[in-house]
From TrEMBL:
Its EC number is 2.1.1.-. It is found in: Cytoplasm. The gene is rsmG. Belongs to the methyltransferase superfamily. RNA methyltransferase RsmG family. One of its GO terms (molecular function) is rRNA (guanine-N7-)-methyltransferase activity. InterPro entries: rRNA_ssu_MeTfrase_G, SAM-dependent_MTases_sf. It comes from candidate division WOR-3 bacterium. Its main location: cytoplasm. GO terms for cellular component: cytosol. Pfam families: GidB. It comes from the Bacteria. Specifically methylates the N7 position of a guanine in 16S rRNA. Keywords: Cytoplasm, Methyltransferase, rRNA processing, S-adenosyl-L-methionine, Transferase. This is Ribosomal RNA small subunit methyltransferase G.
Amino acid sequence: MNEEEQLREGIKSLGLVVTDEQIRKLLHFADLVREGNRWVHLVSRRDLRRIVSKHILESLQIVPYLPEGASCADIGSGAGFPGIPVKIIRPDIKMTLYERKKKKALFLIEMIKTLELSGIRVEAQSFPHQQDMIDYLLIRNIDDRRMIKSLSNLGYFLIAKQHTCQLWKKTPLLRSESLFPLIGQHTS
């Protein structure tokens, strides 16, 4: 099975309906990650062949949980996972990619231009500030307890985890200390 067939089959299994243009953009995105990996370490070398199965499809698993017009932030975006695949499939979502490493942030900016995506921006910092208007945080492989505490102090809590993608929602009702039992439940 080639990458396009694998992508179409995976998207179908997630219950998502996409256009041929969205498939084209996702495949172009995969190619850009492979190409960019030569000058910026974006994914491990062994993952270069598994960008569709390991990264894109895992990223898309959170799409059904996002309401229309949600404001999202991809924390530690790196190569753009999960933010860019989510944005390609859900153009209605406002997306900010947070990446503290300057080389990766510049790569993300170029990728957004190349893919002609709108309603998406890059911030060269670790994560949002209190005043940022963000409904959901999209995070992959977070295990830094200090970052979890910082995010919880901003009022976010985990509402879904699919394999390595995590979706956090902002709520004014949840106290930060109540986040930790929830995290332990979902990451063990």
